[in-house]
Amino acid sequence: MTEGLTAAEVAKAAELDAHVRAGRVLPLRLDAPRRGKPPRHWADLAPDERRPAVAEAGLPAFRAAQFDAHYFGRSEDDPAAWTDLPASARDAVASAFFPPLLSGVREQTADEGTTVKTLWRLFDGALVESVLMEYGVPGRASSGSGRRRATLCLSSQAGCGMACPFCATGQGGLERNLSTAEIVAQVVAAARRVRPSNVVFMGMGEPMANYKAVIAAIRRMVDDIGLSARGITVSTVGLVPRMRALAAEGLPLTLAVSLHAPDDELRDTLVPINTRFPVAEVVDAAYAYFEATGRRVSIEYALIRDINDQAWRADALGALLSGHGRGAGWVHVNPIPLNPTPGSKWTASRRADEHEFVRRLHAHGIAATVRDTRGREIDGACGQLAARGAPSSDVTAQSQPR
Ligand code: SAH
Predict the structure, then answer these.
(1) What is the distance in A from the centroid of ligand 1 to the CA of 400?
(2) Which atom of ligand 1 is nearest to the CA of 205?
(3) How far apart are CA 110 and CA 379, in angstroms?
(4) Three-state SS across 136-199?
(5) Could you give the 3-state DSSP secondary structure of residue 76?
(6) Taking phi first (over 0 means left), then psi (-120 to 50 degrees means alpha), and beta for anything else, what does residue 221 get?
């Protein structure tokens, strides 16, 4: 799937694929490389910065509310079409406040059109993906049942520096942080199709490694776009100091922690940042988040065949989570069958092992539901986002019997 990509991007994709196939593992990278900054955009401005910015551009301050209504309220991102703005002012407004941030490279759909993955090119050529999943769409059985809703899975960085060996994004390395507006723009673009009821920071990147931009983007989503903070999930490998900062923001977000192993020995290899923030500290910080916010924490657990899916590890996970008098009510485990990435030596757990894993968690009183894997066939499921056009036929292991 290299359509829409330039020759240089295709060459880079091939290089990255070769890297993954050779089984090389990247070093951890916490600091984002310094790159040219994306152009300033309306969505980068906090509410109290907007009227002064408009005045500085020589426009009457009341325009600020108009811009908010267009961009955040109606998802309109091109001032050229804003008829309530004098035609003579539109170009200047566009270049001062609404530079194009995302250009769509390609779109792939699955699940009868209810899962859409979009590859975006940013101003400097960096590529990121977002995935919009609709649920409960009448007449579309693969969208599931229940209330009609939509979840946007978005990216917070181009690439990722956390180097988890089972994750396609992690194996591509970190290119740069996204700006606040580049994150918000993914929501605005999705809302033109269907307004998301939920937003999950489970696309490319480690949101807690791009903390400032992520928090500002969340504030725009809540304060300006009107999404519910409860419907927004921030997923992290477990950057403990940032988890603690998040707990103090006063936002009732859902925190998801990518645990994947209850023991340091295994987690050190699956989630390399564990060598800095070990399991016990991560779980303590997750519990502190629950105590501070009252929000039940999600624990992500990719079930990898014969690696982390043993019954004894389920028991260890149950004991870990409910230990220290914490009880079981504060947490919810989401086991998800591994989506094997190209060249991966790992594959998803057998169904029987998956069921036993969940059964043991339940025996500890812990809520656990196996997460679905929407969009697998378009490499749009968790951990598959690589934004480098790998042929989907490379995902060979997905058809192995379980
Ligand atoms: N960096 C953040 C958010 C992005 S990944 C984090 O790690 O939490 C979103 C989720 O997908 C994480 O739980 C991640 O561990 C999981 N994931 C990554 N690769 C996967 C794969 N190949 N199969 C299943 N889940 C995967």
Answers:
(1) 21
(2) 1
(3) 10
(4) CCCCCHHHCCCCCEEEEECCCEEECCCCCCCCCCHHHCEEEECCHHHHHHHHHHHHHHCCCCEE
(5) coil
(6) alpha
Which residue reads 């989907």 in tokens?
392
- Residue-wise pLDDT for 349-361, tens only, equals 999 999 999 999 9
Per-residue model confidence as pLDDT tens digits over 47-96: 999 999 999 999 999 999 999 999 999 999 999 999 999 999 999 999 99
Contact 79, 73 (CB under 8 A): no
* Pocket-testing residue among 300, 379, 385, ligand 1, by greatest number of atoms within 8 A of Cβ: 300
Residue 7 corresponds to which amino acid? A
Q: Give the gyration radius of the chain's Cα atoms.
A: 21
Q: Which residues are catalytic?
A: 129, 382
- Rounded to the nearest angstrom, the distance between the alpha carbon of 248 and the centre of ligand 1 is 25
Q: Atom 11 (ligand 1): residue with closest C-alpha?
A: 382
Dig out the tokens for 114 from the structure. 């209810």
Q: Which residue has the tokens 């986002």?
A: 385
CA of 66 to the centre of ligand 1 (A): 38
Whole-structure pTM value: 0.92
The closest-lying atom of ligand 1 relative to the alpha carbon of residue 260 is: 15
